[in-house]
C-alpha cells in the first residue's frame, strides 16, 4: 500500500466516477482502475460498487476512507514541514477568498504579491465562507481571506484592513438626495444576497436585523445586486472595494450614518507549518490597502 493509491481511493470516492477521478489525479483511467483493483486485493474488500456510469463507495470504503484521508494528510504535513525548513516563501500557496471580495481585491494585490514574493505560486480559490473553512480544515487551502472571525480553536486569523459599507442607490431614489444615509432607512427596499454569503448577514444586521428584508430577491452574486440597483429595483449595501464597479453602473453611493463595515482577515490552521508565508501574504495585502477605509468613505459622496 502506498500514498499514491490512497489518493486514488479518495479521488474515486469524491467523484464517484473512475474517469473523472483519473482526470483529477492526472493519470489514465486504466492506470487508476488497476491500482484500485490492487488495493482491493491487498485489503480483501471491495471498495466501490461499479456500474457503467458510477463508482459508488461500499460500506467498507466508507469505513476506511477516514483512515486513508488521515494518512494522506499526515504525509502532506511531513512534506510541507520539510519544504518550510527550506523556504516557506516559495512553492504553491492556495488562498481562498470570498466572492464579495475576490473580484475587487485580487486586481489590487496580485501584482504586489508577485513582486514582493516572487517564489510564491499564488493559487486563488473563490467560494463562500463555509466552503472555504471546510477546505481549510481539509488541508485543501493554505489560508483564506474572510470577512468574519474564525469559528474554532483549530484556526487562527490576522486582521488586514477595515472595509466600510456604502449605501448603493438608484439615482432617482428619494434617499439619493441625502449626504449621509441612516442604515435603517434602507430597510424598506434593500436587496440582499442569498443565504451563505456573510455580506447578507452583515447587511441584515446593519439595517435592523430583520431577516425578511429585501423582499423575495436573493441574488447569488454582488454584481447581480448592483445591476438590480442600477435598474431601479431597490437599494443595497456594498463593501467599499466594490465602489468603482457601482459607480461605473451609474449607481449613487453614500456613506452610512453608523459607519457599518467589516474587517477583512486572513485565516489559517493553527499548526500550519508555513505561517511565515501566511503572514507575508497578509502583510502585502494590508500594506496595499493601508488607509483604504478612510479613502473609500470620503469618496462616496
- Spell the H/E element sequence: HHHEEHEHEHEEEHEHEHEEHH
The poorly predicted ranges are: none
Structural class: alpha/beta
Morphology:
elongated
Number of strands: 11
Report the sheet-strand fraction. 15-25%
For the largest beta-sheet, the strand count, sense and barrel status come to: 7 strands, mixed
The overall pLDDT, averaged over residues, is 88
Helical residue percent band: 40-55%
Element layout with pairings:
Layout: H1 3-15, H2 18-25, H3 29-43, E1 48-50, E2 55-57, H4 59-86, E3 91-97, H5 102-116, E4 120-126, H6 129-137, E5 143-146, E6 155-169, E7 192-193, H7 198-206, E8 218-219, H8 222-230, E9 236-239, H9 243-248, E10 252-254, E11 261-269, H10 275-288, H11 292-298
Parallel strand pairs: 3-4, 3-5, 7-8
Antiparallel strand pairs: 1-2, 5-11, 6-9, 6-10, 6-11
Task: Describe what you observe in this structure.
The protein is an alpha/beta fold. 44% of the residues lie in helices and 20% in strands. Strands 3, 4, 5, 6, 9, 10 and 11 form a seven-stranded mixed beta sheet that branches. Helix 5 (102-116) links the parallel strand 3 (91-97) and strand 4 (120-126). Helix 1 crosses helix 2 and helix 2 crosses helix 3.
Descriptors for this entry?
301 residues, alpha/beta, seven-stranded mixed beta sheet, two-stranded antiparallel sheet, 11 strands, 44% helix, elongated
What is this entry, summarized?
The protein is an alpha/beta fold and 301 residues long. The chain is built from 11 helices and 11 strands. It has helices at residues 3-15, 18-25, 29-43, 59-86, 102-116, 129-137, 198-206, 222-230, 243-248, 275-288, 292-298, and strands at residues 48-50, 55-57, 91-97, 120-126, 143-146, 155-169, 192-193, 218-219, 236-239, 252-254, 261-269.
Amino acid at each position: 500500500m502506498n500514498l499514491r493509491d490512497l489518493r486514488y481511493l479518495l479521488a474515486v470516492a469524491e467523484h464517484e466516477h473512475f474517469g473523472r477521478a483519473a482526470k483529477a489525479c492526472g493519470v489514465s483511467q486504466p492506470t487508476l482502475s488497476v491500482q484500485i483493483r490492487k488495493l482491493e486485493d491487498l485489503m480483501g474488500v471491495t471498495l466501490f460498487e461499479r456500474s457503467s456510469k458510477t463508482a459508488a463507495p461500499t460500506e467498507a470504503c466508507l469505513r476506511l476512507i477516514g483512515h486513508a484521508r488521515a494518512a494522506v494528510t499526515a504525509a502532506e504535513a511531513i512534506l510541507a514541514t520539510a519544504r518550510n525548513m527550506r523556504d516557506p516563501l516559495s512553492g504553491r500557496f492556495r488562498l481562498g477568498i470570498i466572492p464579495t471580495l475576490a473580484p475587487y481585491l485580487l486586481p489590487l494585490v496580485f501584482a504586489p504579491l508577485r513582486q514582493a514574493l516572487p517564489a510564491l505560486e499564488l493559487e486563488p480559490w473563490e467560494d463562500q465562507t463555509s466552503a472555504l473553512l471546510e477546505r481549510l480544515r481539509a488541508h485543501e487551502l493554505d489560508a483564506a481571506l474572510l470577512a468574519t472571525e474564525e469559528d474554532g480553536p483549530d484556526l487562527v486569523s490576522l486582521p488586514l484592513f477595515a472595509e466600510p459599507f456604502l449605501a448603493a442607490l438608484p439615482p432617482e431614489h428619494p434617499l439619493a438626495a441625502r449626504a449621509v444615509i441612516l442604515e435603517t432607512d434602507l430597510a424598506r427596499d434593500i436587496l440582499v444576497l442569498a443565504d451563505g454569503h456573510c455580506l447578507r448577514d452583515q447587511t441584515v444586521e446593519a439595517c435592523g436585523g430583520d431577516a425578511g428584508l429585501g423582499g423575495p430577491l436573493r441574488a447569488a452574486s454582488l454584481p447581480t445586486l448592483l445591476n438590480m440597483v442600477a435598474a431601479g429595483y431597490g437599494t443595497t449595501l456594498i463593501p467599499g472595494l466594490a465602489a468603482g464597479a457601482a459607480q461605473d453602473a451609474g449607481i449613487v453611493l453614500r456613506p452610512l450614518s453608523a459607519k457599518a463595515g467589516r474587517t477583512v482577515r486572513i485565516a489559517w490552521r493553527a499548526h500550519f507549518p508555513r505561517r511565515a508565508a501566511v503572514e507575508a501574504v497578509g502583510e502585502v495585502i494590508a500594506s496595499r490597502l493601508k488607509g483604504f477605509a478612510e479613502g473609500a468613505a470620503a469618496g462616496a459622496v
